[in-house]
Structure formats: structure tokens, C-alpha cells
Amino acid sequence: MTRDQEMNDHSERQIMEGVYMTDFRKKNNQQNLASDPKLSPEEIKERQNQIDHLERSNQEMLEYDPERKDQEIQEYILENVKIIKKYKIQIENSLKDSGDHYDKGVYL
């Protein structure tokens, strides 16, 4: 069995020596994140963790490709930005009726 088959058909790409990027995202799952039902406090914390991870990932990709010449990396960064925005909307929508406030990743 090849490495690609072991990855269950997930796209993997070496971006620098010893560093691989694997795309585990599900295409259909990303489209309607902002319209999902309200999140529980535990789910909100998980979304915040995911946002932190995506932002860190974007920063690492920008450090690897500071001149933004690698089109594929730029596409990953753009996709992450879209997901971050959707997650933040989802958190905001979940907190609207609770009286809690969320600004730039922080509860107020």
C-alpha cells in the first residue's frame, strides 16, 4: 500500500524538507458552517482552538513563502481565512442570545 493510499485519499504535499501538509478537510462540510445550529460552550472552545490552529498554520505558511510565489500555499491560506471567518460568525451567532460577547477571539 502506498503512502497516499494510507492517507485515505487525502491530499499530501511536502512544503519543505521534512514538512508535509495534508488536507483532511471535507469539501461538503465547509460550505454551511455559518448556518449551523448554535454551539454549546464546549463547541465554542473547540472552534476557538481550531481558529488558533488555522491562524498559526497561516503564519507558518507565510513564513515559508514570504514572497507569496507558491500558488498552492496561497490557496491553502485563503481557504483557511474563509474557514476562520465562518467559525467566527458561527461563534457570534451562538453567543447573540446568551448575553456573552466575542471580539477578536476573546470573550468580553
Account of the protein in words:
Residues 39-58 have a biased composition (Basic and acidic residues). The chain has 108 residues and is an alpha+beta fold. Helix content is 49%, strand content 14%. The protein contains three helices and four strands, in the order H-E-E-H-H-E-E. It has helices spanning 3-6, 41-64, 71-95, and strands at 11-16, 19-23, 102-103, 106-107. It has a two-stranded antiparallel sheet. The longest helix has 25 residues, at 71-95. The protein starts with a helix and ends with a strand.
List keywords for this structure.
two-stranded antiparallel ribbon; about 50% helix; about 110 residues; disordered N terminus; alpha+beta
Beta strands, count: 4
Give the H and E element order: HEEHHEE
Global shape: elongated
Individual helix count: 3
Largest sheet descriptor: 2 strands, antiparallel
Specify Rg, calculated over alpha carbons: 16 Å
Mean pLDDT, rounded to whole units?
79
The stretches of 5 or more residues where confidence is low (pLDDT under 50) are: 1-7
Provide the structure class.
alpha+beta
Rounded to the nearest angstrom, the distance between the terminal CA atoms is 51 Å
Biggest sheet, strands in spatial order? Answer: 1-2
Helix content: 40-55%
Region (Disordered): 23-68
Biased composition (Basic and acidic residues): 39-58
